[in-house]
Amino acid sequence: MFRDAWLMASKDLRIEWATRVGMGQILPFGGLVLILFGLAISPDLAVAGSDGRSLLAQAAPGLFWITVLLASLLALGRSFAVESADGNLDALKMAGLDPAGIFLGKSAAVAIQLLALQVVLGLGAFVLYGPPLTDLVLLLVVVILATLGITAAGTVYAAVASGLRVRDTMVPLLVLPVVAPVLLAATKATEAAVFGPLENGWSWAMLLGVFALLYAGVGMLAFGPIMEES
Amino acid sequence: MVNLSGAISLIGGFPALAGVDLTVADGEIVVLRGPNGAGKSTLLRLCAGLAHLNGGTGTILGHDLSSREQRRRIRRETGLLAHQTFLYDELTVEDNLIFWARANRADPSTVEPILDRLDLGGRLRTVKISALSAGQRRRASVAVMVCRRPKLWLLDEPHAGLDQTGRDFIDDIVRHAVRFGATVIIASHDHERVSNLATRTVHLVGGMVTGAEDGREEGQNVS
Known about the structure:
The complex is a heterodimer. Chain A is mainly α. Chain A has one domain (2-229). Chain A has helices at residues 2-19, 21-40, 55-84, 88-95, 99-129, 136-162, 167-195, 199-229. Chain A is elongated and about 60 Å long. By secondary structure, chain B is α/β, with parallel strands linked by helices. In chain B, 32% of the residues lie in helices and 27% in strands. In chain B, a hairpin with a 2-residue loop joins β4 (55-60) and β5 (63-64). The chains are: A mainly alpha, B alpha/beta. Chain A binds chain B through residues 4, 7, 11, 14-15, 18-19, 82, 85-88, 90-97, 228, and chain B through 48-50, 68, 72, 75-76, 78-80, 82, 84-91, 95, 99-100, 102-105, 128, 144.
């Protein structure tokens, strides 16, 4: 299983390196969304009872995670577009790769791309929205766990959509409701990491970890039947 | 090798195969002939374990087509050359071959001689699939099949898009595979070309076998 996961992940990352879709298209898209949020919410609006912080700074965690979710939809769609083209999904079935390994490999490749995107988008969010930072460790843990949750759940539903003729429009419809708990928990935990207090932040981070584990398990068990029907 | 009795396969509710009876023995080269929509491609996909058997019975390489687990074994032991390339456009010829060799548990060191043999060595090995001509892509797909070393070769219009040299080359590969113990089923409209290879020709119309001719009776044999 892990051999197959490594094989799939390295192949997907090689395709990304060759095409630069992540850096050339998804990252600029995420940057644009961050800028549009900044234009839509005036930085002069202050929030009552928030030590004079602007509305934009106060909303920064939520805006960042919405941006990451939108970018992840593109990355997930792209991840399965390369398999749907030229019948590669059939070729994977014929190769006899472990479906759980395929799931883990594709999830890992999307997670690595999303983590790289978040480094740049996170810096952009700090520059554009100006929130403070209380605990960098909690923030990093939240970013990693939320990314694993988004990619695990997203890979399951992107695979379901890949077998449909309307897959491009179905990926957001299937993935967004499922990862709504990740958006909520990641936003709350990030709020704690940037504004404090930290106690609640670690509880939300644990919830993110549980979600990621749950969907990793679901994906490993369900990917075989999902591929069979694709 | 292949035993189908009353095989029915539905695609979107439509019976692409409507009761096919077909037996293929080890070492045969069977050519499937028929008009568009006759069910040739679906029959090849059924033999590859990719299409569902919705009625009748069937075994491929001794594995039961109605069992999901045994269909997985069929897939591992068969090779399908379809209309699609089964290659990643964004990767080079060599990267594709190495990936599929590893995915198929084949020895990656066999890739280089296979690329040379299929005239894909030298400069072409570092060219992305998307930059190749249709004929070169076809040869790259064949290279993956050769890497797999399947027991049952399923070729859907293998000569399509190839020049004369490429077509001759496909014929050589097929003869070579049979010499080394493989069995081959070819779906083709290019009757003149494949009749030189066939040990038997099977006619399909409307998802059913309507007749068969023994190639050897016409003095056509694999040499």
